[in-house]
């Protein structure tokens, strides 16, 4: 994965480069200090990913990402974008520009790994000709079909999400709402609203976790409404960070 780093602070680029240095499939191929230089680097280097600050001189990160939307996907076209910023109030704007993720500075390695995994899934989906667009997605909610018509499901109020093949079920106030959407796509848009993956087919809001149980090697969560959910082995480190290392087996 070829990456361009765009930030007007050299120290911020240095820190990102250090975080990326030991990731086997990532190569930093270029750097930029402002929006205009960013566009030149993208045109010259054709990166797979652009990690982009928002506040930069000249053309800011949002303006650069907006221009990139006009490029076609694929070689010589549009890279995936991860915003890396100190500003928490621009997440909705970022995801409106189809950002893969929105990282808050100082960037933690764990969150960077999650963001890179989203980019990998996007690249894999693009290679398979999968269209992950969802016309029913707004900036902060998903419109779900019901027998009575469409219902707006605010992402900030969803307790958990469960995937089943090419559908996901958004659980709000004890009721599931089914939408046709991939898990990778729903994870990308739901992360800024406090939902995080605990299993390949489950997202959960951490503050809704009431208990953790273990049976043999299996780990499960119980939410405050009594919902029982599995925890995948790959996601136990994230769970330990939320509730304490002693509560979750390795």
Assigned CATH class of the largest domain: Alpha Beta
Gyration radius, rounded = 19 Å
For the sheet with most strands, the description reads: 5 strands, parallel
Q: Identify the strand order in the major beta sheet.
A: 2-1-3-4-5
CATH superfamily of the largest domain: Response regulator
Structural overview:
By secondary structure, this protein is α/β, with parallel strands linked by helices. The protein folds into two domains: 2-127, Rossmann fold (3-Layer(aba) Sandwich); 141-247, OB fold (Dihydrolipoamide Acetyltransferase, E2P), CATH 2.40.50. It is 28% helix and 31% strand. The protein contains seven helices and 15 strands. It has helices spanning 10-20, 35-45, 61-68, 91-96, 109-127, 183-190, 236-243, and strands spanning 2-6, 27-32, 49-52, 80-85, 101-104, 141-146, 149-154, 160-164, 167-172, 175-180, 196-199, 202-204, 209-215, 218-223, 228-231. The strands form four sheets. The chain has a five-stranded parallel beta sheet, with helices on both faces. The chain has a five-stranded antiparallel beta sheet with strand order 10-9-8-12-11. The protein has a three-stranded antiparallel beta sheet with strand order 13-14-15, with no helix packed on it. Helix 2 packs parallel to helix 3. The longest helix has 19 residues, at 109-127. The radius of gyration is 19 Å and the shape is globular.
